[in-house]
Amino acid sequence: MDKNGLIIDLEDICFGYPGRPRVLDKLSLLFFEGERMGLMGSNGSGKTTMFHIIMGLLKPSAGRIEVFGRPVKKEKDFRDVRKRIGLLFQDADDQLFCPTVLEDVAFGPLNLGKSQDEAKAIAGRTLESLGLAGFQDRITHKLSGGEKKLVSLATVLAMEPEVLLLDEPTTGLDDATEKRLVEILRGLDISYILVSHDMEFLREATTGITCMSNGTIVLDDERIPHTHIHVHEYGRYVHDHGRKWPA
């Protein structure tokens, strides 16, 4: 870990898919220990691509990446990153591939060198902490969308990461499950970056909201999504906010 608690340091990251304009255009980001960052942006603004670059799933065409105080460039560098940072994919079906819930959640601990018994115990505790006790023998592909999302989160948390990257975690969740997810995230002692289009969810689950636009981080506060209330005497009539009314 960087002595200043800096976990992720991206500088001037560029990336584009073949035959398409750049998705990331000189993107820079600093993410520190203890942060719970909300990240908004329109579809195609580069949020998911940035996550995949941090994890080494995509390689930038330019820029510098440092994670936990060390530069990461080659595949071997990212292996340690993946042990310490958990990525929740936007689509749960990209994360779940085993026949049963228990096998999916135990897969990560097994890959980290845990024994079969240890991995099953970790999986059981993780499922219980998410309100999924009794799901161990459920058939993964028969779960509802919301259930798949929570089981996907369980597969990530079972690896006991130091940091989470959460890509649209509320997709497919009903209101009650979304509320439960907020409680779960608030109860975690983990730094995380949370991508969502749901402003209310971000307000409840994060300590600050950042915006991405055109492949970079927006630093102008006026362009960061926000809500406000205003009252004036012409509120009940159709009016133009750009017009200056006479006194």
Strand content: 15-25%
Q: Indicate the CATH architecture.
A: 3-Layer(aba) Sandwich
Radius of gyration over C-alpha positions, nearest whole angstrom? 20 Å
Across the major sheet, the strand order is 6-7-8-3-9-10
Secondary structure class reads alpha/beta
Mean of pLDDT = 87
User: Remind me, CATH topology?
Assistant: Rossmann fold
Termini Cα gap: 59 Å
Count of discrete domains: 1
Low-confidence stretches: 220-239, 241-247
Protein traits:
10 strands, six-stranded mixed beta sheet, globular, Rossmann fold, about 250 residues, 7 helices, about 25% strand, alpha/beta, disordered C terminus, four-stranded antiparallel beta sheet
Please, could you describe this protein's structure?
The chain has 247 residues and is an alpha/beta fold. The chain has one domain (6-222): P-loop containing nucleotide triphosphate hydrolases (Rossmann fold). Helix content is 31%, strand content 23%. The chain contains 7 helices and 10 strands. It has helices at residues 47-54, 75-84, 101-111, 116-129, 145-157, 175-187, 199-205, and strands at 6-16, 22-32, 36-40, 62-67, 70-71, 85-88, 163-167, 191-195, 208-213, 216-218. The protein has a 6-stranded mixed beta sheet with strand order 6-7-8-3-9-10, sandwiched between helices. Helix 3 crosses helix 4 (116-129).
